[in-house]
User: Fold this.
Amino acid sequence: MSAVLDDPMFHLRPMRDSDIAAVMAVELRAYPHAWTEGIFRDCIRVGYQCWVATRGDDLVGHAVMSVAVGEAHLLNICIDPASQRQGLGRRLLRRMLRCAGELQADTAYLEVRAGNVAAQALYESQGFVQVGQRRDYYPAGEAREDALVYAKTL
Ligand SMILES: CC(C)(COP(=O)(O)OP(=O)(O)OC[C@H]1O[C@@H](n2cnc3c(N)ncnc32)[C@H](O)[C@@H]1OP(=O)(O)O)[C@@H](O)C(=O)NCCC(=O)NCCS
Assistant:
């Protein structure tokens, strides 16, 4: 993680429409079930918190969160596989949680695939606790995968 903390080229900023092609490239590399361009476009249009992580000229990650009536919902957080395990995901998550607090949210929620142990470890390291489980929530090839619901008081 210190590699990133010391990296003057690393930067977090709001996502723009012009970022979406680069965001999609990361999304497709990182997820077997990726969002579409249209979803990102809609999230920006409706005013969700949409952020990107850049390193120099490269876009290396993104996150999307909705905030309303005191609740923040982290809808997506993603780091390019080539840039994972360097502390970027944690920095991006912390930034999103700061945003949520600034927008008067008192609780942050998210859902994560039951098999996504990397993301679960990240969330738990930031104080999220599992508060529920949705059976067969996500598509997973021919089958379905449970979602674990996590929450954190801000
Ligand atoms: C989950 C994800 C965002 C983590 O980003 P990252 O930049 O690699 O994570 P960081 O380097 O900041 O790691 C933070 C903590 O997360 C946990 N973690 C991250 N990757 C992990 C892995 N492969 N295995 C186990 N724990 C992991 C560790 O607790 C780590 O802390 P540590 O380095 O002190 O041990 C990244 O793996 C990713 O984009 N995955 C694909 C998309 C995705 O699944 N998003 C979440 C959807 S709910």
Q: What stands out?
A: The first strand starts at residue 10 and ends at 14. The pocket of coenzyme A is lined by residues 1, 30-31, 77-79, 84-90, 112, 116-119, 121-122, 125 (CB under 6 Å). The two ends are 23 Å apart (CA to CA).
